[in-house]
Design brief:
Elements: H1 2-15, H2 25-37, H3 41-45, E1 50-54, E2 63-65, H4 66-78, E3 80-94, E4 97-108, E5 114-124, E6 131-138
Parallel strand pairs: 1-6
Antiparallel strand pairs: 1-2, 3-4, 4-5, 5-6
């Protein structure tokens, strides 16, 4: 169901003849998805000055600054080889706050067993663009 909603949001923009709207929440989620697939941690964090991370190796109790967030994500991604990553949900919960879910399939380097995790992205929109505020992974 969530996937249908995400697809409907994207397709409604496409059928309107404008692709993904500049600064849309769906565009922000897609930007993070593409950056994650490329293991481009700078692009995952984007212009955010701090991010709350809940991933293995990170203390989830407080936001970390941009540089620390990139290093923690780099370490997290280093061990995995991506097999698939898709946006499964996008939702604005109130003006200027939204979330997206990514379904990740990957293998740990040196193994062949495929693993799955859900990546929850929390966004805020303090200006014209959505900024990543939280990133949490769950098996």
């Amino acid at each position: 169901m969530r996937q249908r909603i995400a697809v409907a949001l994207v397709m409604s923009s496409v059928f309107a003849g404008r692709g993904l709207a500049q600064g849309s929440l769906g565009e922000a989620a897609e930007r993070v998805r593409q950056a994650w697939l490329a293991h481009n941690v700078q692009a995952v964090v984007g212009q955010s000055s701090s991010v709350v991370l809940q991933i293995p190796g990170a203390d989830p109790s407080a936001a970390v600054d941009r540089a620390q967030a990139m290093e923690l994500l780099r370490r997290h991604l280093r061990a995995g080889v991506e097999r698939g990553l898709r946006v499964s949900a996008v939702r604005e919960v109130e003006p200027g706050r939204g979330y997206a879910e990514l379904d990740r399939r990957y293998v740990v380097a040196g193994t062949s067993d495929e693993r799955r995790e859900t990546i929850f992205l929390g966004f805020q929109k303090p200006g014209p663009e959505w900024l990543l505020a939280e990133l949490r992974s769950a098996p």
